[in-house]
Amino acid sequence: MEQVVDERDISAQRKWLDTQRAEAAVSMFEKRRINAQYVANRKAALAAIMAMIPEGASVARADSITLDQVEVMETLRARNRNKIFWAQEKDSYGNALIPDLEERMNMQRQSFFADVFLTGTNAITLDGKIVATDGLGNRVAPIIFGPKKVIVAVGINKLVRDVDEARARIRDTCAPMNARRHFEMHHRPWYGDIPCVKTGACPEEGCFHERRICSSTIIVESVQIAYQGRMNVVIIGEDLGI
């Protein structure tokens, strides 16, 4: 007996394609000595991330909507077995819990000495590269060097063809949306004058604003054999983050 077909629902085909692309990326990450896995949803991602964080390990966290959506920090605090450094933590009104800038900077510097560094990223590529852009550098720097282990949580929406597409995604989507987020949600009026916050687009002549949110970009292409196991990517089969 034939099954009724609902042409309005292509979720199964979308999930199939996401899985194929993610598994191809996982294979390429492994060739570059970057541990990677694909999980179906944020619940599975939380389990995978928590399994990689030993009890007693110090944990530093970068600003990441994806980590918020996965609810990693709530779970770590409920476990109550880890020392946590989270300089960008905010209250329910979007205010920084550590208002003093120098105190936040000092905590961000401690990220380099953490056992585990949790972060998101702006894009990953089908050929197994991590591409991340930052304003201050406190997120991208510990990805490269410092913490003993790095865990990168990334939604399937951030899986792109190559570095050029990743850079375009950062310029056209991540930077304007993230800067607008800080302007509207985190009480930072000085972001309102950034060109992409005003227009949603990077100016053709380039951005020279003093508060530019995309000042530093890294591309992680591989991990040296002596540090294999340090870099861990969790690709999540949901659209998460910016």
The helix/strand series, from N terminus to C terminus, equals HEHEHHEHEEEHEEHHEE
Question: Which fold name fills CATH's third level, the topology?
Answer: Rossmann fold
Determine Rg (CA atoms, Å): 19 Å
Average pLDDT works out at 96
CATH hierarchy, class: Alpha Beta
Walk across the major sheet and give the strand order.
Answer: 1-10-7-4-2-3
Terminus-to-terminus distance? 44 Å
Assign the structural class, choosing from mainly alpha, mainly beta, alpha/beta, alpha+beta, or little secondary structure.
alpha/beta
Question: Low-confidence segments, ≥5 residues, pLDDT <50?
Answer: none
Count every beta strand, where a strand is a DSSP E run of 2 or more residues: 10
Note the beta-strand portion.
15-25%
Globular, elongated, flat, extended or rod-shaped: what is the shape?
Answer: globular
Describe the protein's architecture and organization.
The chain has helices spanning 11-31, 42-51, 65-70, 72-79, 101-110, 140-144, 163-185, 195-199; strands at 35-39, 59-61, 84-85, 116-119, 123-125, 130-134, 149-155, 159-160, 216-220, 231-236. The mean pLDDT is 96. The strands form two sheets. Strands 1-10-7-4-2-3 form a six-stranded parallel sheet, sandwiched between helices. Strands 8-5-6-9 form a four-stranded mixed sheet, sandwiched between helices. 36% of the residues lie in helices and 17% in strands. The chain is built from eight helices and ten strands. The protein has 242 residues and is of the alpha/beta class. A hairpin with a 4-residue loop joins strand 5 and strand 6. The protein has one domain: Rossmann fold.
